[in-house]
Write a structure and sequence with these properties.
Elements: H1 8-29, E1 63-66, E2 79-87, E3 93-102, E4 111-113, E5 118-125, E6 128-135, E7 141-142, E8 145-153, E9 162-171, E10 181-189, E11 198-202, E12 215-219, E13 228-229, E14 237-238
Antiparallel strand pairs: 1-2, 2-8, 3-6, 3-9, 4-8, 5-6, 7-8, 9-10, 11-12, 13-14
Length: about 240
């Protein structure tokens, strides 16, 4: 009698692959893994989701980051409400990730606080710990719109221009990682124009070694304190105006 064998091992193996793939999709629906904002040293969501970055370039105009800055920029040590929004017809589920870095050296700056529908993460990139916010489940998603509100506290000192790196996933809700649309955009924020801008003058136009100089300080927007540094000078620092 001829025996018929059922390839149980093969069936179980294929089943485990399907379960693993589904588990990955479910995990990412609760938040993207860290370091996927397309910032320097990072990937973006196409590393896990099939497709190309910014497949419809015109859709980037629908990705907005709104922060009510005073003086068209940030004031050090100030906390701001942030609105992140992306619009696309035909999409009902969205995800995001955001981080903030100094433009001059890619150092992480500021502090995020998660809001409804978002979670805070940290990760080490290029030797520095970066903060991230990412989506938390389907909260923030509705027909044709992904929208999240949270807060960001500016760094305690002026670090010049800050860049917010944002990635959006416009998901097709098939439970997998293929067919989604990934968009990445940056938003540059300068220091507030309300910050003082220093002006320095000295009492001599020709200087010789050993001369004593007088430095005079002034600034826009009514500065209230002064901080001088004189490398190899005497004194090396001063808090006097002049």
């Amino acid at each position: 009698m001829k025996k018929i064998f059922t390839p149980k091992v093969l069936i179980l193996s294929l089943l485990s692959v399907v379960i693993m793939a589904a588990g990955t999709a479910v995990k990412y629906s609760g938040g993207a893994p860290v370091s996927h904002t397309n910032a320097p040293g990072e990937q973006e969501c196409t590393a896990c989701h099939g497709g190309s970055l910014n497949p419809t370039p015109s859709n980037l105009a629908n990705l907005t980051l709104t922060i009510p800055f005073t003086g068209n920029g940030y004031l050090p040590d100030s906390t701001y409400s942030v609105n992140l929004k992306y619009l696309q017809n035909g999409i009902n589920r969205f995800g995001f990730q955001i981080t903030a870095l100094a433009k001059s050296n890619n150092q992480p700056v500021g502090t995020f606080t998660a809001g409804t529908g978002s979670s805070k993460l940290t990760g080490t990139v290029l030797g520095k710990t970066r903060e991230y916010l990412t989506h938390n489940g389907g909260a923030g998603s509705s027909a044709g719109k992904g929208e999240w509100n949270f807060t960001w506290k500016a760094p305690s000192t002026n670090v010049d221009t800050i860049v917010f790196y944002v990635v959006i996933n416009a998901a097709n809700s098939d439970g997998g990682t293929s067919g989604d649309q990934i968009y990445a955009k940056t938003f540059d924020v300068a220091p507030s124009t309300l910050l003082p801008k220093a002006t320095i003058t000295i009492n001599k136009t020709e200087v010789c070694a050993g001369d004593t100089l007088q430095f005079f300080g002034s600034g826009t927007n009514t500065p209230t304190s002064w901080a001088w540094k004189f490398k190899t000078g005497t004194p090396t620092t001063s808090t006097q105006q002049n």
